[in-house]
Specification:
Layout (H helix, E strand, L loop, with lengths): L4 E9 L2 E9 L6 E6 L9 H11 L3 E6 L3 H6 L7 H15 L3 H4 L3 E6 L2 H11 L6 E5 L8 H5 L5 E6 L5 H10 L4 E6 L11 H17 L5 H5 L5
């Protein structure tokens, strides 16, 4: 099992700072960025539980807040401003490019809630910024038709069967032109609060990243083998 180093971070995003927690090991198979729609305890929140499952699967993780403490308590409408939150994810990508221990890792991104729309907007501007994407429910359709069609990385939707907005989520999924996959979890809604639902979502997320982030031996190497 990986021995992870936990490092609290404050990442500059324009005029504000995004609070984050990096769990990293030199032998990690990839780095998963986890956008958190609220300001929470990165060590004990539901996202921390979700991140721990990804760590157990062999990945480093970076949980980062999309909102500041002020915005969460005084300006709650900020969480619905997907263009602004998308810009913050782009600024996180920029920060990541200047982190030598992390820059060589394959990168995955997980978003939920209104953060799903922010992730779509960010990746429509930087299509190659991550190697794979998982949208854990949320409202990706808020990003708009054009940004959804600009996503190029392999994308999995993990949804709750009882999500009241499931039809809109499916419409957003249908607009994707990239490699894509749909996974539904029975008996839960968009918050995955039923016992075991968040763990199942984490398993489906880890499976997607194992398939699309773990570097396989180049096919060319196999071609070099002498015929038997």
């Amino acid at each position: 099992m990986m021995k992870l180093r936990q490092t609290p971070l404050s990442i500059a995003a324009g005029p504000i700072w995004l609070e984050a927690l990096l769990a990293h090991s030199p032998d990690a198979e990839g780095l998963i960025l986890i956008a958190q729609n609220s300001v929470g305890n990165h060590r004990e929140s539901r996202e921390a539980h979700f991140a721990k499952r990804l760590q157990d699967a062999g990945f480093a993780t970076l949980i980062f807040d999309l909102l500041t403490h002020y915005e969460e308590t005084r300006d709650p409408d900020t969480r619905y401003n997907s263009p602004l939150l998308g810009q913050r994810i782009n600024l996180l990508f920029e920060w990541l490019r200047h982190q030598p221990p992390l820059v060589a890792l394959p990168i995955g991104l997980v978003a939920s809630g209104t953060g799903s729309a922010a992730a779509v907007r960010a990746l429509s501007k930087e299509p190659m910024a991550v190697d794979a994407l998982v949208l854990r429910g949320g409202r990706p359709g808020l990003a708009g038709i054009s940004p959804l069609r600009q996503i190029v990385c392999p994308t999995r939707f993990v949804v709750g069967e009882k999500d009241t907005g499931l039809q809109a989520v499916r419409q957003a999924f249908d607009l994707l032109t990239c490699t894509k996959d749909w996974r539904s979890i029975a008996g839960t809604d968009e918050d995955f609060r039923e016992p075991g639902a968040l763990d199942e979502a984490a398993t489906k997320t880890a499976d997607w990243f194992h398939h699309h982030l773990i570097r396989q031996p180049a096919a060319a190497d196999a071609d070099k083998a002498e015929p038997g």
